[in-house]
Every structure is written in C-alpha cells, then in structure tokens.
Amino acid sequence: MTCTQQDFGRSVVDHEMRVIRDDGVYRHIKFENPVSNIYWFEISTWPGSLCINGGMGAYVFYFVGDMFEFFRKITSDDPSNLRINPARSMRRLQAVSAGRDGSGSAHQFSFNSFLNCVKYQFDEYFESRKISEKRRFDLWAEIKTRVLDHVKDDEGYALELLSDFTSGEFPDLFEGFIDFSCRDYTDSFIWNLYAIAWTIRKYDAAHTVTA
Question: How high is the mean pLDDT of the chain?
C-alpha cells in the first residue's frame, strides 16, 4: 500500500517547525511533535543538494543550486494538494539510508506490479492468437497455481517461477518478461517526498508573513 497525502497529513498534524539555519541556500529546518519523536524529520540544503533525514529514513538529492526551487516546480499551487513527482525526484536521488538490515532503496518489488505485468503479457500474447476461452481460462488458472500463489516479496523467486513455467503449446508466452519493471516506490520514499513539499510550503508561508 503506497503512502497517500492523507496518510502523511495525519502523521504530521501536530508537528512544529523550527528553523535552525536560514542563510540563502544554506538551510536547516526541523519538524517534530513536541510530545513525541515519531515521524520527526529535518531538511538541510546547501548548494546543489537537499538532505531529508528522520524517523522515516534519509534521502539525499542533488541537481540545481537551490533544491527548494527544483521541488517548487513539482508541487502544486493548490493549498490542498501536495503534488509530488516520484519519477522526476528519483532521477535526482544520490543516496538512501541503509536501514536496519544494511540495505536501502527508494523502490522495491511489488506483487501487484508483477501481477499486472504478467496479466498484460498474457493478454497481449493471446490477442492475435486463436485460442478457446476454456483453454485460456485453464492456462491462466495454471499460472495462478504454479506461479502467482507462491510469489510474495522476493523478486528473484518470482522471476524464477515465471521462467520455469512452460506450456507445450506456448513455450514463448513470457519471453522477454525481464524487460518489464515490477517495482514500486517505497512508502518511506513517498512519505519523504510529501515531507519535502510540505516543508517548502510551510517555509514559504513563514517568509511571506515576515516579508
């Protein structure tokens, strides 16, 4: 389940902003609930870089001189909409916190994405081939039993099961499947993108008030 703007909003509803440094593109801004450190986070910027760190992990982005400007171009003017662009942001991602298991990523294997890709290739394959509805139904049931019912969160195992699946009639059914992307963005990555957009909105509002 991917983090939504509503999920993010509920997690920071009691957060307070503390500006530790505000010197041009050199910034250090911290948000936290005064009675709890759950979902705390801080954002630091310096020429060409932005780092967000906190209870939901750490991510470093690198691109233009002022990364607030980069993220401002992504977000929406609608005060009720914290628009984010995971794909565009991902291209500027330089580093991710390792986490407790020593590994870190902004995206991970998704069973739903895998299922959609399998179904897409299955439908595409039989779009131009004559096959009875019963045979097609039985073949899909076999795929479900031998592959889909055994796939959890292991991408390598999922691809191995699919590769091992063969049918005498259609041995090339999943040929080239490896070219599909069966990954989705992690909840923590999406949460942090919302946090960046929200911080910039709060920061800009504070500057408007004091201007």
Answer: 88
